[in-house]
Amino acid sequence: MADASFDVVVIGGGHQGLIAANYMVRNGYTVGLFEQRRELGGGGATESRPISGFIGNPCAHVAGFYASPCNQDFKLHERGLEYFFPKVNTSMVYPDGRCIVSYRSIEWDPETGMIAPQPDIVEKNVKEVARISQKDADRLSWFAEGKGWEWGFAAMTVLWNPPPLPGEFDPVEAIVTTPGSGLDRRHCYMTATEFVSDFFESNELRAHALRMIGSGGYYPDDPVPLPILITNVPQQIMGMGGGVYVGGTHNVIHALQRALSEEGGQFFVGADVDEILVENGRATGIKLADGTHIEAKKFVISSIVVTQTLARHMRNVDLGTEGAEWRRKIAKLRVDRGQIFWGHICMHEEPNYNAMQWNPDVRDGRWIFMGDADIEYMDREYRFRNAQIRPGQCPDRLYLWEGTDSKWDPRYAPPGKHVSLLEEMAFPASWRTEAEWMQIKKEAPDHFLKEWQKYAPNMTWDNVIATNIDTPWDIQHRSDNFLDGNWGLIPGIPSQWCTLRPIPEFAQYQIPTIENFWMASGSCHYSQGLTGWAGYNCYKRIAQKHDLWKPWEGRLY
Ligand SMILES: Cc1cc2nc3c(=O)[nH]c(=O)nc-3n(C[C@H](O)[C@H](O)[C@H](O)COP(=O)(O)OP(=O)(O)OC[C@H]3O[C@@H](n4cnc5c(N)ncnc54)[C@H](O)[C@@H]3O)c2cc1C
After folding, report:
1. 339 lines ligand 1 (CB under 6 A)
2. Per-residue pLDDT tens digits for 98-155
3. Domain range annotation of the chain
4. pTM higher than 0.85, yes or no?
5. What residue owns the CA closest to ligand 1's atom 1?
6. Counting beta carbons within 10 angstroms of the beta carbon of residue 84, is it exposed (0 to 12), middle (13 to 18) or buried (19 or more)?
7. Which of these CATH numbers, 3.30.470.20, 3.40.50.1370, 3.50.50.60, 3.30.70.270, describes 4-58+249-333+492-546?
């Protein structure tokens, strides 16, 4: 006899679990969501950082969730979720005082989710690029005159749909086989450096795009799935990108939780799920670490990384004749990309960039990238040099990006003060000992400030109030989902993407031999951030199979 019973049991209280729970509750099911930690949110968190009086987002920070249809399906804007879109999308600052400023060129309507281009701003961005490279400005003009929307549509159709089954429309296949699209099959196999070099002529633009792609979890010499490349190159430089979560990222979670609770869904924190119960090939419930038994009358949906699903939650489950092979493949998933240094630095005055003489708007960037245009170094040495970071040893050049949200949202810092988020690419937590990471964490702020001063001379210790730089070791210990400290659950390398993610047999959010069990985990769809892709697309397949509410009918996705 179970201790409690729901139609649907959801494991994990991050955004993906909450999205799946919200769609199920709207079908009239009773829903119970179970979260290991003492609060909901997972990587959708905001805390007092780096010291009290300031706030910071320890994980997701750049607001990409505005593009999710969940905003409209659950009316999240009426439940406290607001976005702010700074007028400058990205700035790339070079050591010689030049920069590229990309103004935000799209407008977003929270009621409908529609995104409208602003051609005058696109034009302005092209002119900014022309100050650095006329050839690249011409290329961007060519792109803006039509290709931009073709590429954007292909990428969005991939991200907001389940991996195509045989016979279903495949947007990547369609765009690489359409004559004149500017893309062909070669682009599916390119590294980031190859792709940016194919698109741009100048090393300045190439370096800008490479660092942008780096924030997606790829070093320049990594092959990158085409949809990720085309959402970064050249969209971001054209001014199409994410914004700021007003009041912090945790408001995504609060809004989703409100939506769930208002519809009668229940959630439980401090509920560490230990096992998924399976009888006669059908998921029937879960067992918590304290022994509590929860019955699931219709479905169990897990938003937890697939490695934990198999190694822990299904350790006692017979997966059938292919089970051992599936377990072997899952245990070998690659997790050595997507590790970063992620820190908060609070200060008296905001950074003053040398490049403000080139364009005073440079410091209004939602993301401000700093780096040289040495793409040979970026391609051949960046990853290797960063992988050598250890106590007392840090490369003499870095490629930082910062975002000072207190410029736009006064909730982030006390009046007159500022707090920046700083990122640099790193390597797996397991490559250093705990003691080494503690020492690296202590030394990192000084290295990062020295680098920052090359671009913004006022970023000295005199201007700094406090710092905290999280390392991959910190990130790994934040959530069982961040394997080896990588932020994307399992990296989205081509062999772990789309119809191959996490392995081909599980790519439709199910384990073929277990009925009524679904995986709404970022490790089972395209993860890469607080985007809602996995929860939404997993629900799409559930709804198709069981004829449930299909809110996407009549809209693009
Ligand atoms: C440093 C860092 C920076 C990032 N920056 C960005 C960014 O700028 N923009 C962006 O969009 N994304 C960013 N991300 C990624 C984003 O935070 C994650 O992709 C996203 O939070 C994953 O959501 P999720 O729901 O899949 O998993 P999570 O948010 O990890 O939620 C899973 C939940 O499941 C719980 N759980 C785990 N095991 C169990 C169990 N056994 N029983 C019950 N509950 C369990 C966890 O406690 C957690 O709350 C960043 C991540 C990190 C770490």
Report:
1. no
2. 999 999 999 999 999 998 999 999 999 999 999 999 999 999 999 998 888 899 899 9
3. 4-58+249-333+492-546, 336-476
4. yes
5. 59
6. middle
7. 3.50.50.60
